[in-house]
Write a structure and sequence with these properties.
- With about 400 residues, the protein is α+β, with helices and mostly antiparallel strands.
- The chain folds into 3 domains: about 1-120; about 130-270, Immunoglobulin-like, CATH 2.60.40; about 275-405, Orthogonal Bundle (Cytochrome Bc1 Complex, Chain D, domain 2).
- It contains 12 helices and 12 strands.
- The strands form 3 sheets. Strands 3-2-1-5-8 form a 5-stranded mixed β-sheet. Strands 4-10-9-6-7 form a 5-stranded mixed β-sheet. The protein has a two-stranded antiparallel ribbon with strand order 11-12.
- Strand 6 (about 200-205) and strand 7 (about 210) form a beta hairpin.
- Helix 2 packs antiparallel against helix 4, helix 7 (about 280-295) crosses helix 11 and helix 11 (about 370-380) packs across helix 12 (about 395-405).
- The radius of gyration is 30 Å and the shape is elongated.
Length: about 400
């Protein structure tokens, strides 16, 4: 009876040992993302090889254990061996064999492909295209130096989904308004920068995860072998909006990429032309709300009420308590008085949006947004959330400020 229970327990253990091997080749929610780059394929190959090896070792070890338990069980009155150490050459060989096998597995079977994968990932030369990805709380900015194109990529999941007022989409918190678009079958080098804190560039299907550290340039690369949409996330805890910082990469065929590039360059030219246009206040406010929702609401909140002690409200007349240094900065710029947020001078408002506030989470938007976007968001903020300044800012004024700062 005792023997039957033992055999059942060992059989269950064997099933659990074999299960991971089967699951490695089955598509399930816990399975690997399909690899689409050389590095990702190497990584999955090494993983599957390692899993197969340890499963074989487990089965062989279990077989020896079962044999020992059955062949030398007490009911057979076995005679215990008397030796305590290897003596013959054959015994020494049997003792050394497991060690030699493990060394061979570690340094040859697994070591060679692992070194190949590491060397492949470290090969940052011969890029066919370069993208500069700049991280900031909590968005990505992508620039294509060769084509003079850049844009922000911001979470586009609706607030109703985020706050539980609507059913969650299958790509919940993994949607952006402007994905990174690259051609297939071309080596794309990605130069990584951070404007504030440590972030992480991680796309599972590419097999890459690179920390993005302020003050340093980091680089990685990928070469996608088939068109599609591939999703990732910032992989380092970077603040309250960390979970709102997805990475979406769309791979297109070279021909489709050229069409997309021409379209984006046309939009960029139209945006430049809009800088010289005189906008009505209503149009500026409407456009500014879109810019605010994408770039400012994660801190100041969609309601404009901010987060107590951390991010000040945009709405005039609301109390705000924070660190002494932050309150002094706001007071100096005319945005804080008698414990409440006030509207403040227009010129100071422009300066804060363009240059940020050093030492705080308020970033400089002069390199992130166009002159039109900056003008419209300032106009929106000064005429929304109960603010009634009646003031508006034209893109030409922002462009003038940017040109002066560049000299």
């Amino acid at each position: 009876m005792r023997m039957k229970r033992l055999l059942k327990s060992l059989a269950a253990g064997l099933a659990l040992g074999v299960l991971p091997v089967a699951s490695a080749y089955a598509k399930a929610f816990y399975d690997f993302t399909d690899p689409v780059t050389p590095v990702a394929k190497d990584t999955l190959y090494i993983h599957d090889l390692f899993l197969a090896i340890i499963t074989i070792i487990f089965i062989v070890s279990l077989a020896f254990l079962l044999y020992s338990l059955i062949a030398h069980r007490r009911s057979k009155n076995p005679t215990p061996a008397t030796f305590t150490a290897p003596k013959t050459g054959f015994q020494w060989f049997l003792s050394a064999l497991p060690i030699l096998i493990m060394i061979f597995i570690d340094y040859v079977v697994l070591g060679i492909p692992s070194v190949h994968a590491i060397m492949d990932l470290a090969n940052n030369g011969n890029d066919q295209m370069v993208v500069v990805a700049t991280a900031s709380q909590w968005k990505w900015n992508y620039a294509y130096p060769k084509y003079g194109l850049k844009f922000n990529s911001v979470l586009s999941t609706p607030n109703d989904e985020i706050y539980g007022n609507a059913p969650k989409d299958k790509h919940f918190l993994l949607e952006v308004d402007h994905p990174l678009v690259v051609p297939t079958n071309e080596k794309v080098g990605v130069v990584l920068k951070s404007r504030d804190v440590i972030h992480g560039f991680w796309v599972p299907a590419f097999g890459i995860k690179q920390d993005v550290i302020p003050g340093f340039l980091r680089k990685t690369w990928f070469k996608i072998d088939k068109p599609g949409t591939y999703r990732g996330q910032c992989s380092e805890l970077c603040g309250v909006g960390h979970s709102f910082m997805p990475i979406v990469v769309v791979a297109k065929t070279p021909a489709q990429f050229k069409i997309w590039l021409a379209s984006e360059q046309a939009k960029e030219s139209a945006a430049q032309a809009a800088t010289g246009k005189t906008w009505s206040q209503a149009d500026l406010v409407a456009d500014g709300k879109k810019v605010f929702d994408k770039n400012c609401a994660s801190c100041h909140q969609a309601s404009g009420m901010g987060i107590p002690g951390v991010f000040p409200p945009i709405a005039t007349g609301h109390p705000f308590s924070a660190s002494k240094a932050m309150l002094e900065d706001l007071t100096e710029r005319g945005f804080y008085k008698d414990g409440k947020i006030v509207e403040g001078p227009l010129e100071n408002h422009i300066g804060i949006v363009l240059n940020g506030i050093p030492g705080t989470a308020m970033p400089a938007f002069k390199k992130q947004l166009s002159a039109t976007d900056i003008a419209s968001v300032i106009t929106f903020e000064r005429n929304a959330f109960g603010n009634h300044t009646g003031q508006s800012v034209q893109p030409a004024k922002i462009q003038q400020a940017l040109s002066g700062a560049a000299k």
